[in-house]
């Protein structure tokens, strides 16, 4: 096991990448630092029978994606929602029924749909997701009140910067979808909007070529997480909807819901359980006090995890960036992403275990928990 500590110059390139980001939006602060540009494929409005076809293609191509699901579809296809998680993809919340007039006619309705969907996703998959995508996107639908209330609750609102156009009308043909993607402006961090509802057979047909296009352009594929700075549209000067302002009480309802479902109180305290990650016949063991549960996410010391995976860690103390390399794959975090601030890295760098493993292309095969230990089995996917 090697531990390389480097400073300064080596990271000039990385720092430059950090600055290269879609400027359309004031909320976007920094792109994920990486040696390669990153594409996040996102599929909205599922799950449906089409999702299975999408999953088969993603598996064949060795690509992970993010699925923004509708609560009502999750209720109908809980098994498919679960399969999405089991195959290492991320799930986001896309409200319950997608009916614009209900969602954007009143924040109380919007919030209720988000909470109902959260519960549906949790029941089907065991995952509590903080990722949210507004049906139709935020532009003209979200006012500052919507943005603020959802952010206060801990939601990360994700719009996109490449629209595949697969939903501009019913039945947009495969060729047109591919053409739209190939002629879009691409970014160092590209978030592609696609759909996997039952009417999106053409999107499924287009998918292999969309993936091939990004591979050819040198992109790496990743899933959205709480740690990925979201693409958000700018606030529209006027709204498409007339509605009352978001009230403090309405905001409080979502904040309290999130507190109730995300705090450690909702999850058995880890301080009596050790955490064991089984990777290729090896065990990476975290003692009860070595890892933490934060907002429903298991957070572990980066160094221990990476060394257990026979990887390398590089610290750029001057730039405040930590980079980990496992199996020739490199991931970087800025100080603020790992609990530091500015360019100062914390003495103990903690990362979300599930997200980090997924970004290194490990799929979680199995998870178990008993009174005294929690175990995760992972495999390179
Ligand atoms: Zn949608």
From TrEMBL:
Pfam families: Polysacc_deac_1. PROSITE patterns: NODB, PROKAR_LIPOPROTEIN. Residues 37-222 form the NodB homology domain. SUPFAM superfamilies: Glycoside hydrolase/deacetylase. Gene3D superfamilies: Glycoside hydrolase/deacetylase (3.20.20.370). PANTHER family: GLYCOSYL TRANSFERASE-RELATED (PTHR10587), POLYSACCHARIDE DEACETYLASE YHEN-RELATED (PTHR10587:SF125). This is NodB homology domain-containing protein. It comes from Paenibacillus glycanilyticus.
């Amino acid at each position: 096991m090697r531990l390389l500590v480097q400073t300064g110059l080596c990271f000039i390139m990385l720092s430059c990448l950090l600055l290269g980001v879609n400027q359309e939006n004031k909320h976007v602060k920094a792109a994920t630092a990486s040696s390669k540009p990153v594409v996040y494929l996102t599929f909205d409005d599922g799950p449906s029978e089409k999702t299975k076809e999408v999953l088969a293609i993603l598996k064949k191509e060795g690509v992970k994606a993010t699925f923004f699901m509708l609560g009502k579809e999750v209720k109908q296809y809980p098994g498919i929602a679960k399969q999405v998680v089991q195959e290492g993809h991320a799930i986001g919340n896309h409200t319950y029924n997608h009916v614009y007039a209900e969602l954007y006619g009143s924040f109380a309705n919007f919030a209720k749909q988000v909470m109902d969907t959260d519960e549906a996703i949790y029941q089907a998959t065991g995952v509590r997701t903080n990722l949210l995508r507004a049906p139709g996107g935020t532009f003209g639908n979200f006012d500052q009140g919507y943005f603020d209330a959802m952010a206060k609750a801990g939601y990360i609102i994700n719009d996109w910067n490449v629209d595949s156009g697969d939903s501009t009308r019913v039945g947009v043909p495969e060729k047109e979808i591919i053409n739209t993607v190939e002629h879009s402006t691409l970014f160092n961090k590209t978030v592609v909007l696609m759909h996997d509802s039952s009417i999106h057979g053409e999107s499924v047909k287009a998918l292999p070529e969309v993936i091939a296009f990004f591979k050819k352009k040198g992109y790496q594929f990743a899933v959205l997480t709480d740690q990925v700075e979201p693409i958000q549209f700018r606030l529209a000067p006027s709204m498409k909807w007339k509605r009352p302002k978001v009230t403090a009480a309405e905001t409080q309802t979502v904040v309290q819901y999130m507190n109730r479902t995300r705090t450690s109180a909702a999850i058995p305290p880890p301080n009596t359980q050790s955490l064991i990650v089984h990777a290729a016949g090896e065990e990476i063991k975290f003692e009860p006090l070595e890892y933490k549960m934060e907002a429903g996410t298991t957070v572990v010391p980066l160094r221990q995890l990476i060394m257990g995976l026979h990887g390398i860690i590089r610290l750029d103390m001057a730039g405040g960036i930590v980079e980990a390399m496992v199996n020739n794959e490199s991931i970087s975090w800025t100080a603020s992403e790992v609990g530091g601030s500015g360019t100062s890295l914390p003495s103990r760098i903690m990362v979300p275990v599930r997200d980090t493993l997924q970004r290194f292309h490990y799929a979680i095969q199995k998870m178990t928990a008993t009174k005294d230990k929690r175990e995760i089995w992972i495999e390179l996917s």
